[in-house]
Amino acid sequence: MAIVVLLAAGALLALVLQSRHDIDREARNRSVSVAQTFAKSLGLQEALKTPDPSAVLQPLAEETRKAAGVDFIVVMDTHGIRYSHPQPDLIGKRFVGTIEPSLAGQVHTESVQGPLGKEIQAIVPVDSPEGDVVALVSAGLTVKSVTGIANRQLPVILLSIAGGLALATVGTALISRRLRRQTHGLGTQEMTRMYEHHDSVLHAVREGVLITDGEGRLLLANDEAGRLLDLPDDAEGRPVDEVGMDRRMADLLLSGRIATDEVLEAGDRLLVVNQRPTRPGGRPQGSAVTIRDSTEMRLLSSRAETARRRLKLLYDAGGDIGTTLDVVRTAEELAEVAVPRFADFVTVDLADPVLNGDEPGPGADMRRTAVNGIRSDHPLYPLGSLIDFLPSTPQARGYGTGAAELVPDLRDAPGWHAQDPRRTSAIVDYGIHSLIAAPLKARGVVLGVVNFWRSQKPEPFDEDDLSLAEELVGRAAVSMDNARRYTREHHLAVTLQRSLLPQDLPEQSAVDVAHFYQPAQLGVGGDWFDVIPLPGSRVGLVVGDVVGHGLHAAATMGRLRTAVHNFSSLDLPPDELLARLDNLVQRMDQEGDGTAPEGGVLGATCLYAVYDPVSRNCAMARAGHMPPLVVAPDGTTTISELPAGPPLGLGGMPFETMELRLAEGSQLVLYTDGLVEERTRDIAEGMERLRTALSHPGRDPDASRRAVLDALLPSQPSDDIALLIARTRTLGPGRVAQWDVPFDPSEVGAMRSRAAEQLEEWGLEELAFSTELILSELITNAIRYGAAPVHVRLLRDRTLTCEVWDSSSTAPHLRYAAGMDEGGRGLFLVAQISEHWGTRYTPEGKVIWAEQVLPAAGPAVAAAPA
Predict the structure, then answer these.
(1) Does an H or E element contain 675, and which?
(2) Which helix (DSSP H) or strand (DSSP E) does residue 117 occupy?
(3) Where is the PPM-type phosphatase domain (predicted)?
């Protein structure tokens, strides 16, 4: 196409130039012809002799000009002065052009810039009869007229070229299309390279290729086909039955039928033949045949299949062994994977300390942890047996050296027979004839021995089997050691967790308690609960949850539980206690050494409640914990709308205390999120199921606990679960005595008398003296250093509690008085006489209390509900 376009452009240029040349020549010839004709016209010389030649010549010249088709005819004298011109105002002016040649009698043509523009003109002489030049005549055309003629011819030229170009384009496209179809779009270089590659690949492949035509001639045979069929060098082009190949092969090629993986014998070779008819013209015109030697392929395929089975076994072992962090289950998974794909029976013997998560030592006894086989009536040691292998056995040698041992024939293994002659004889008689003992070795520690036994397959284990057994056991050993390490850490964490949780709940009379704790299956967390007796027969109820699992979470839980005990001894309100606990968690984060998982304490949640059996008020606050549930005596269960507060450790936000007045017999249910939150259900669904399980009247805490666990306890908990159910009790009026004290020191004696009378009524006369002394000192301090009003309250519970209330927030301090001091001994006496004493603050002031142990013969009803 590029060549055609260039040729067309060249032709167009040549035609344009030639056309313009021809037109220029034609213009000159016409100018000469017109000028000569006019110069020889009749009457021209007579007109020249007239007084006014222009009057005669101008009309004649214009008429002739128009008839001749030229742009001007000019008649001039021998000096070049015009007698005529298409522009009359130029008559009488000098002619523009060269007149000398014409004055000499010559015809002269030229191109000049005349009055009409660029002009092509001819100048001829006018001769007198005597032969003299008497005048000159010039005729011509302007270049514009000449160009117009050429331009009028140009469309014809362009149309001709376009037609030729179109014909060339169509012809080129048709030829290119046919060539592309025949060469499949390949160029000459690609065709050459394709044929080179075709020949190199055809003769390099390890598969014979034959092509025959419809007349049974061999058109093509590659080198491999010639080798397999012993073909001569000149076989191509000859009939198939004349090239010396096996008769059955020749018959198959001549038949032209379809053959798929048909096996034929050719000498000492076993050939696999595939044949398909070729249809280059839409009808069968020959066959294409491929031949491969299955003699070598059979061996290769057997080896490949064996390798594939072994790789598949190792691949499945990687996915099926170690699915849990349980030592026994990992051993069972190893035995299940190997039977029957590698061995007929598999036994796994682990050093006994491994089952407890400990690292085994040399010479440890083996515990048969897993047994699996194609039959169950085998005479091998049963599951759970504790085996002491003799040093002569392959198991003992493998455990000691860490190297696997192969016993091809158990009948010829005296060291193994010495272990238990009766049992080993029964094993051989059973048909078990070969053994591989592979030690479970991980991170330099041998955990046990895996025994692979063969009975059904007659061939013994070989070195390849030994390598496979080592690879299989090596992969399982890592999972086994991980499970052992997890077992050890889990046992440590569980032991630590349970040691930090309350072993026996303290005695108190405010609530009846049922509790439950279960660690997570995959790791102990930091959930805890607690029941803390408080002064004034009150009780503190605590449930908390430390984020994370493992030893760190358990240790953090123990620190927080201790802190709650310490803070509760200060008799702090729930919101203030949580605020101090929040500060403690922040300090624990800042003091972390980076050894804790994920960088230290991530946070914790806690709910703290204080129940007073006298007023039946329950003050609660929570730090990001689940809300408590309150079960009324009639079974109505509500979820408390206690403000959540931020989790411990975040800081910056205050906690809020909410007070509830609980009827006697109400149940307060505290729990951690592991009870209601699970992967298979939404937390809202868990809360509703918990509420439903608790909504039954007349239950004691134990019955409520069983109902909750039946409804919500998962079989494999993913998080710790802590549950605390407290049923409220009250101290009735018969066990509480209280008086208002006038703000006058003289009233102290009257208060002592009232207290003595009340103790006599309760049968506690033995405590009258000490109680009078305690009240005397506490009331005197309240009146002297405190503020009105002052109240006194006696509580008879498991102890006798004396409480003095006043409106001052100033707390007394115990100190030692000097020998000559008149005061300072009151609180010292109170501390010596009472079992415990202390101060707690209220919104109205403070309470100073002192507890005394009841006499051994005191009323038994002291611990019973009123």
Answers:
(1) helix 673-676
(2) strand 117-127
(3) 508-728
CB of 648 closer than 8 Å to CB of 543:
no
Q: Which DSSP string do the residues of 354-378 spell out, in sequence order?
A: GGGTPPP-TTPPEEEEEEEES-S--
Q: What is the mean pLDDT of the chain?
A: 84
Kindly write down the DSSP assignment for every residue of 439-471, as one continuous string. Answer: EEEETTEEEEEEEEEE-SSSSPP-HHHHHHHHH
Q: What tokens were used for 125?
A: 């002489």
Question: Which segments of 720-826 are extended strands (E)?
Answer: 721-728, 736-741, 790-796, 799-806
Residue type (1 letter), 33 = S
Pairing assessment for the beta strands 721-728 and 667-671 based on DSSP bridges:
antiparallel
Is the pLDDT at 524 greater than 80? The verdict is no
Distance CA 788, CA 806 (A): 6
Q: What is the token pair recorded at 722?
A: 């802590």
What are 678's two structure tokens? 């699970």
Strand partners, 269: 266
Question: Parallel, antiparallel, or unpaired: how do β-strands 538-549 and 434-442 relate?
Answer: unpaired
Q: Give which of 121, 118, 117, 119 is closest to 108, Cα–Cα.
A: 121
Residue 814 contacts residue 828 (beta carbons within 8 Å): yes
Round to whole Å and give the CA distance between 335 and 380. 14
DSSP-assigned beta bridge partners for residue 738: 793
For 533, the token pair is 């007796």
Place of tokens 């909410």: 658
Is residue 217 within 8 Å of 240, Cβ to Cβ?
yes
Q: Where are the beta strands (DSSP E) in 143-221?
A: 208-213, 218-221
CB 734 within 8 A of CB 762: no
460-498: buried (b, 16+ CB within 10 Å) or exposed (e) per residue?
A: bbeeebbebbbebbebbbebbbbbbbbbbbbeebeebbe
User: Which has the higher per-residue pLDDT, 269 or 319?
Assistant: 319
For residue 551, give the nearest of 527, 516, 526 by alpha carbon. 526
673 in Cβ contact with 689 (< 8 Å): no
* pTM above threshold 0.70: no
**C-alpha span between 662 and 479 (Å, rounded):** 54
pLDDT exceeds 60 at position 866: no
Tokens 């109205």 sit on residue: 844
Report the candidate in 62, 138, 142 with the shortest Cα–Cα distance to residue 96: 138
Nearest alpha carbon to residue 280 among 226, 203, 219, 238: 219
What is the band of 619 on the pLDDT scale with cuts at 50, 70, 90?
very high
> Closest by alpha carbon to 546, among 482, 489, 598, 594?
598
Distance, first Cα to last Cα, the chain: 117
How many residues are listed for the chain in this entry?
866
Distance CA 219, CA 246 (A): 18
What local confidence, expressed as pLDDT, does residue 865 receive?
39
Cβ pair 580, 572 in contact under 8 A: yes
Give the count of alpha carbons within 13 A of 332, CB side only: 9
Per-residue confidence at 859, pLDDT binned at 50, 70, 90?
very low
Q: Which of 306, 346, 308 is nearest to 465 (CA)?
A: 306
Angle between helix axes 463-500 and 327-338 (nearest 10 degrees) is 160
Chain-centroid distance, C-alpha 780: 74
Helix (H, G, I), strand (E, B) or coil at 330: helix
Helix (H, G, I), strand (E, B) or coil at 286: strand
Q: β-strand 445-454 against 667-671: which pairing, if any?
A: unpaired
Determine whether 372 is exposed, middle or buried from the number of CB atoms within 10 Å of its CB (0-12, 13-18, 19+). Answer: buried
Instruction: Please calculate the CA angle 198-204-207 and round it to the nearest 5 degrees.
Output: 100
The position carrying tokens 């509690």 is 801
Tokens of 781: 């301090």
Mean pLDDT across 207-227: 85
Tokens standing for residue 456? 């059904």
Q: In the chain, count H helices and then E strands.
A: 22, 30
Joined together, the tokens standing for residue 731 give 């101290």
